[in-house]
Design a protein that fits this description.
This protein has eleven helices and 15 strands. By secondary structure, it is α/β, with parallel strands linked by helices. It folds into two domains: 4-150 and 294-338, 3-Layer(aba) Sandwich (Rossmann fold); 156-290 and 361-371, Phosphofructokinase domain (Rossmann fold, 3-Layer(aba) Sandwich), CATH 3.40.50.460. Helix 1 packs parallel to helix 9, helix 2 crosses helix 3 (95-104) and helix 7 (211-223) packs across helix 8. The chain is elongated.
């Protein structure tokens, strides 16, 4: 019987974190269950740093707020954790300390709010015997086995609003306006915001692009008297035969993605200006996509996820990810979520073995984009 549970938020922040936390807490309190939150994700789990989440105090009035009231951690793989010993940096498996913390505090279940890497670690803890329930978070919308992640809709809405604003500037000054959005290995934000924002070109990671195809699209518009164009580029888009545009590389050890992407928008803008003769400007939306008030859609989705995850715990269903399939709440095994990425602690996600959800060429978004004349670079 579940009497005491804890929540941790991990990875980059998204709008909807707090709505999920609220959904868990309110459902827990309706069933006489104590709820706690680890501060700063897996780091809090490692350091045994947590607070009581009281629906009347801590978790009240947070539905509409962005960020996470319990913080979040990035690049924190506790199975291969970066520590300093005798003046040297070494990496250690500290997962056993996390497990001991959970047992000592008598937590009956840990809720992991996060994306691919977060749920990989959740699966690894599940294999080690912890009761874990995951909830799919990421603005990239690339967590496997679910139709949508919380935070994604808000990110798309922010990108679409940015495109509306860039559209009027481009039209006024006869320019090509490029918007670089997030999306490391999946182009959901770029594709959906392009449709919502009336873009002419959308370049996504799943389709290596030929810049000349984008030029053809823009030149056709020029011939029709349209002396401006709007282009959306996912940060992980690559030219045919090319590679990712990397801003820098970090050294946080294995088990985390050490590459920081950035710069593809400026690269595309420069090439389009040279090849079309129109001035081109790039705007990198960056962290604007993550922060701020969640949309009504994300508030509802997040609440549904949180409440359902707590219900699964009450029913004794662990080692699962709470998902939305065909419009209905459901669950899948964390084993299915990580795909072939089976080795404990070795890699957190975003690898060839990972089961990342990418845009497929038969998806309705791709079909719609093509039907209305959006160039996808192929």
């Amino acid at each position: 019987m579940v009497r005491k549970v804890a929540i941790l938020a991990n990875g980059g922040d998204v709008s909807g974190f707090n709505a999920v936390i609220r959904g868990i807490v309110k459902t827990a309190e309706e069933n006489g269950i104590e709820c706690y939150g680890f501060i700063d994700g897996y780091r809090g789990l490692l350091n045994n740093n947590f607070i009581r989440l009281d629906g009347q105090k801590i978790s009240s009035g947070i539905l509409h707020t962005g960020g996470s009231i319990i913080g979040s951690s990035t690049n924190a793989n506790v199975f291969n954790y970066k520590v300093e010993e005798n003046g040297e940096v070494v990496y250690k498996d500290l997962s056993e300390q996390c497990i001991e913390n959970v047992k000592r505090n008598e937590f009956d279940c840990i809720f992991t709010l996060g994306g691919d890497g977060t749920q990989k670690s959740a699966r690894d803890f599940s294999v080690r015997g912890l009761n874990v329930i995951g909830i799919p978070k990421t603005i990239d919308n690339d967590v496997a086995c679910t139709d949508i992640t919380f935070g994604y809709n808000t990110a798309v809405s922010v990108a679409a609003e940015a495109l509306d604003r860039l559209h009027t500037t481009g039209e006024t000054h006869h320019r090509i306006m490029v918007l670089e959005v997030m999306g490391r290995y999946a182009g959901w934000i770029a594709l959906e915001s392009a449709i919502a924002g009336g873009a002419d070109v959308a370049l996504i990671p799943e389709i290596p692009y030929d810049i000349n195809k984008a030029v053809e699209k823009i030149n056709k518009r020029i011939k029709r008297g349209k002396r401006f164009s709007v282009v959306v580029v996912a940060e992980g888009a690559t030219p045919k035969g090319g590679t990712l545009t990397i801003e820098n590389t970090r050294d946080n050890g294995k088990g985390v993605d050490n590459t920081k992407l950035g710069g593809i928008g400026s690269r595309v803008a420069k090439e389009l200006e040279e090849l079309t003769g129109l001035e081109a400007r790039n705007t990198t939306l960056g962290y604007m996509q993550r922060g701020g008030t969640p949309t009504a859609f994300d508030r509802v989705l997040s609440t549904k996820y949180g409440a359902q995850a707590m219900q699964f715990a009450i029913e004794g269903k662990f080692g699962i990810l709470t998902v939305l399939k065909d419009g209905k709440l459901d669950s899948v095994s964390l084993e299915d979520v990580v795909g072939e990425n089976k080795e404990i602690g070795a890699v957190s996600g975003n690898t060839k073995e990972s089961n990342i959800r990418k845009v497929t060429m038969d998806h309705d978004l791709v079909k719609t984009a093509r039907r209305i004349g959006i160039c996808l670079g192929d």
